[in-house]
Amino acid sequence: MSAVDVDSFGKSGRDYSLVGESSRRAIETGLASAEWYHTDIPRKTMKELMQRSDGPAIRDTVIWIALILGSAAGAIYFWGTWWCVPFFAVYGVLYASSSDSRWHECGHGTAFKTRWMNDVVYQIASFMQMRNPVQWRWSHARHHTDTIIVGRDAEIAVMRPPDLLRAALSFTGVLDFYYLLPTLFRQAGGRLSEDEKNYIPEMERQKAITAARWQVAIYAATAALALYTWSFLPLMLIGGPRLYGTWHMVLTGLLQHIGLADNVTDHRLNTRTVYMNPISRWIYWNMNYHVEHHMFPMVPYHALPRLHELIKHDLPAPNPSMWHAYKEVWPVVLRQLRYEDFYLKRELPASAKPYKEEFHNITVPAAAAE
Hints:
Helix content is 54%, strand content 0%. The chain is built from 19 helices and no strands. The protein has helices at 21-29, 43-49, 54-77, 84-96, 98-108, 115-128, 133-145, 164-169, 174-188, 194-199, 205-229, 233-237, 241-244, 247-253, 267-270, 278-284, 290-295, 304-311, 322-336. The longest helix has 25 residues, at 205-229. Residues 1-12 and 358-370 have low confidence and may be disordered.
């Protein structure tokens, strides 16, 4: 999922700050930077899967840019009439939702074989997401090191007990403007939060501040252009899509970890794979194969379907659709409103190796067994 700043959500019985009691306990118990379970794959096969190539990402990026420019051109041409609405609908999803997966994969450095191509798309997608490219690179590295470890993971989207209003508002992009934009302004002013300092190395902090200043400068220029032309059009094209085009990113991204176990060191317990339609998979760049991605994050997005076929015997059965996944999640989320420790434990096939649960130190109420 698109990364969400832990400062965005309220407190609960769990301490989600990265400098509090949960963080200290995770370090003391060995949950922090722990050794994670991986399905066994022959070395030669893994080397083939990890092979990077410019071809697939160049193809997809050319299509992506062409669709963005085409939908933007239509929106501009029909601005002031109802005919601009379908163009903005397409443009918004391409800008605010598909940029999340491009940010993600290029941040891993696996989308393209050529490094500068990863870097260019990563910077552009970071801006589209209102994310500081330096801060979020380190935030996501922590997310993979300590996935859904309370007090360590800076990108837990839905905390316990869940805040359903905020989860609903996330589909509108309102929270992005309420939290991410002020965060960029704070960072541009030279101030990093204690949580940010927890995962951003000291030598990278000035780069984070400089990156924030560049983004704020572009947003300021866009606002100035809107005032000069006395038109909302510049804001509808830059920044504004985070309000009307984020829904697909949230629709797909929430399913990555919601309702599953936290404080475990087996991605089969805390991560979900969901089969999706081809259009959503293209927008999402195959991140619906999310257990596979977390187990082997250096496998490029275009190789994830093949990886899935190789290791699915060792994984919980994927949800057959997003609708099925949300029907499964909803009762769990409602139960978590009363029982914070409740979670959904995925069933493994008979061919799978057992769960690695020695670090699973959460006490689950009797209701969890129902």
